Every structure is written in structure tokens, then in C-alpha cells.
Amino acid sequence: MNVDKVLDVKGLACPMPIVKSKMAINALEEGQLLEVHTTDKGAKNDFPAWAKSGGHELLKHEEEDDVLKFWIKKG
């Protein structure tokens, strides 16, 4: 995947990963891709709901060594 911006919010607790992701995705053009890295376990539920409510598309997510990674396409 061709990522336009990588956002590292590891170590931040809810709601900061979503708040920072919202700021980051607002700076992107429609169709661009944001990759988010977080250690907040609540993000498993938060990011799909946030992406959907914002009109964005959660392309995929994975967990690697306690780090959750999300790829979100700006809608």
C-alpha cells in the first residue's frame, strides 16, 4: 500500500489516538491513505467506528508486538 502519512500515537490513551488521527486525516486529500500505530487496546473498536462515522474507509488493521496498525483511506 502506498501510504501518504504515518501517524505514531503509541503510548497515548483514549481519546488522543482518535483526536490526533482526525487532525492528520484532515490534512490529507480525499483518497489518500493514513497509517496509524497505537498501543491503545480500545482502538480495536474506536477506529472502525470513527472511520465509518467520518466517511472514511478502514482498509485493514493488524496487531504486531502489542502495536495496533490501521490503514484508513480518506473519504
From TrEMBL:
Gene3D superfamilies: TusA-like domain. It comes from the Bacteria. Residues 7-31 form the UPF0033 domain. PROSITE patterns: UPF0033. It holds the Pfam family TusA. Belongs to the sulfur carrier protein TusA family. PANTHER family: SULFUR CARRIER PROTEIN YEDF-RELATED (PTHR33279). This is UPF0033 domain-containing protein. It comes from Psychrobacillus lasiicapitis.
